[in-house]
Amino acid sequence: MYNKQKVKTTIFEKLFSSVINGGIALIVSTPFFMYWGFSLYWKWSVVLSFFLYELVCYATSGHRDIGMMVVNSHWHNSPSFFRYLVYNIFYTLSFATIFIYLSVPLDLLLFNLIVIQLPSIIFTGTTFHGFLARLETIKH
């Protein structure tokens, strides 16, 4: 028997997983878009859909969302519900920067990606929300 080395997921794997999860939230919120159009109500419905989707994913085997399944990543340590909830709250806030901006569209998203997430991944090996919840993803 041999011991497989566990490798941290790359920046691109983390980003691809998040794009998949965000896409799922957009698809789930399509009926709200048809009702409200491109309004603040619809934007909040997407963010809420994202939060609820991630919360439901805690019930899956290994507490993995579909993005994690696609990139074949796993949690280094199985998270408790409280740690996963903390992770989910900050992951959702990070996702919400797509829809909320200060002066120009996507300004908070770019700030989040360049000033918060990228340095966090470089220096800690995980996203800022993963760091706060003490959760990191690995590949087997």
Uncertain runs are none
Shape descriptor: globular
Strand order of the largest sheet: 1-3-2
**Number of helical elements:** 7
User: What integer is the average pLDDT?
Assistant: 94
N-C termini distance: 15 Å
Beta-strand percentage range: 5-15%
Gyration radius (Cα, Å) is 16 Å
Total of domains: 1
Count of distinct strands: 3
What share of the residues lie within helices?
A: 55-70%
Helix and strand content put the structural class at mainly alpha
Compressed to H and E, one letter per element, the order equals EHHHHEHHHE
Largest sheet: 3 strands, antiparallel
What does this structure look like?
The structure is a single chain. This protein is mainly α and 140 residues long. The protein has one domain. Helices cover 64% and strands 6% of the residues. 26% of the residues are buried.
Descriptors for this entry?
3 strands, mainly alpha, three-stranded antiparallel β-sheet
In terms of topology, how is this protein built?
Layout: E1 7-8, H1 11-28, H2 30-36, H3 40-57, H4 66-71, E2 73-75, H5 81-96, H6 107-124, H7 128-133, E3 137-139
Summarize the structure.
With 140 residues, the protein is mostly helical.
